[in-house]
Specification:
GO terms for molecular function: peptide chain release factor N(5)-glutamine methyltransferase activity. By secondary structure, the protein is an alpha/beta fold. It contains 12 helices and 11 strands. The protein is elongated. It binds glutamine.
Amino acid sequence: MSETLDRLLAESRDRLKAAGIETAALDARHLISGLLGLSLAALMAQGGEAVDDTVAARVRAAIDRRAAREPVYRILGEREFYGLTFKLSKDTLEPRPDTETLVDCMVPHMRRIVASKGACRIVDLGTGTGAICLALLAQILEARGLGTDISEDALATARDNAERNGLAGRFQTLRSNWFGKVEGRFDVIVSNPPYIRSRVVDELEPEVKYHDPAAALDGGDDGLNAYRAIALHADRHLEADGVIGLEIGFDQKQAVTALFAAQGLRLHDSAKDLGGNDRVLVFKRTEN
Ligand code: GLN
């Protein structure tokens, strides 16, 4: 007997619930709608329809992976961020909704720069999927961006994402360890670097610990290694009235502000994430 969508949905939800997944119903809906290429609304409306055996088998295989704690969007291979769709790969962090706060925060600064000079050059250090830089390029049509990463896999993924979202003409990539191979000055420097303390990485939930790349999470003993590396060379790569926008861990505002202050860069703006934690810091030159 062939399955209906409703029965497959209920079976999937029960399977995930039994595996201890708290968001079982939601995850089952997202996985099935993603695999079938249906919106969530269409999935609910078409619940009585028959599902053929090959599709049901694909859904069950995906549900098995989720039951083993693989994240929904890793299984689907892509995720939405700031209204764009991003392909994920092994060396890219899955874009988080909290990181949209960094994009929100940078857009007005970029509009100001474009209003005064007609253009805006961005560098996104450790670009991963390219999410931050590409979301900014989609918002600010006068901007051009450079995404750097230590991983070729990540850079290939970022280029693919630029292509998919129609932004390839304004986006370039460079293999570089933070500012290592970067040349020239930028109006906007952005980064969501690894900021979790090494010993805490082990305690993260399995979805993060086993599926997000360690290099995108582990910020060293105190979680600040990447900020130290960035702060040291930021001034040399920043235009006179440029801004630096960084995502930080919830308890790192003071420490990161001090690292940049030591290089003549002052805190100019900041933002909290969806949970009310300090999440974004924006720095400028002290004299500006
Ligand atoms: N926000 C991520 C997490 O909680 C960490 C990302 C990062 O280190 N930049 O898993």
